[in-house]
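Researcher: Please predict.
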Amino acid sequence: MKILNPADDTVITELSDDTPEMVHNKYRAARAAQPDWAATALSTRLNAIRQFRELMVRDTEQLASVTTAETGKPIRMSRNEINGLLGRIDFFLEQTEKTLRPASVFDEGGMREEISLEPLGVIANISAWNYPYFVGANVFIPALLTGNTVLYKPSEFSTLTGVEIGKRLHEAGIPKDVFITVAGGGDTGAELLKQPIDGVFFTGSYATGRKIAEAVAGRMIKLQLELGGKDPTYVCDDVDPAAAAASLADGAMYNTGQSCCSVERIYVHEKVFAPFVEAFVNEVKGFVVGDPASEKTYIGPLTRGPQVEVLEAQVNDARTKGARILLGGKRIDKPGNWFEPTVLVDVNHTMAVMQEESFGPIIGIQKVSGDAEARKLMNDTEYGLTAGVYTKDATRARTILSGIRAGSVYWNCCDRVSPRLPWSGVGHSGVGLTLSTYGIETFTRTKGWHLRSA
């Protein structure tokens, strides 16, 4: 397996994929280690994760450089991700003990009823490359804290980051057979799914998520799929268009648009459409495209080469159907996976750019006559991850957002994730959830206790 730098296509290093026998042996080790890990005092598990947090702080610069090299994420964004991880770790450290506390629900006439939460067992965590620390830790931190062992397969596009995560967890005190990294591509992931695991937690595309669901169908195990989105935002006529444009340009282009909750389509009230578009284009023009290792860079290369072709196809489809390109619109002619920040107008829902996930620095902006049309278009999608509204009127925002099919909604903000709120999706955006106390409980199974005193 060659690890490539997407900024120039050079080979960083080569690693061996885990063979089917290796995957099976890793599963057996995780299965054997799980009972002892579950029996380990929660205080010990919490202390290990606290130490992991300290190691993240200690090694931030080194770890950020590794992620930037193999994914092309601008260095300051790699650093931001690691710094942002700390708050999520803090949330899990603060909430796990309270969440796992047994509940007494009845005590009368010598009969007591209780509910306890127990670990699922062995978890397969097939993670993503775009935010390897965020999306990985959303799973493996609460999974470990609740007494599960974890077979962690990082994306083949962020394998080095996954290896570094494993090293830090082991240094922090997590036993080597409790958190095991599985290295490889799609074939390795398929082999992992063949093992008699107790849960599969995947973050990635709808296409791969569907294959995973089909692979484990009928096995009665926990399945959680955090998939893509075609996240819409509506800009109402009562806002400052320049302020909304600045916020949404960042929401659309941050991490080179490679976020499942990136703003992927914008609907703007006709009364503010022209000034909004002008401000949006000017904002994007200010984003520096360049070497991801540079502190000045805002737009780096796409991590996956084939995605450049996806963006080219969306632009060509939109142009053929009448869209105008106000900015960008083509690949950048140099080694690596580069595409210009792109802004399209005169778009509509016959175009792929307004219907299919882009996952790159491209946005379609559509004029609408009012709230009803905007709401209808926002719901015209097979996805349902996030949606947002920009307006001064809180009641108006709640009215619009209450009618949108999405797992998370935003008022006057976008592209935001909080550890205190559940992260979930509707339709092709997935099943299950992470984060919040519900995202701790999801790694457990309930047990009902009927206790009669003698």
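Model: The mean pLDDT is 97.
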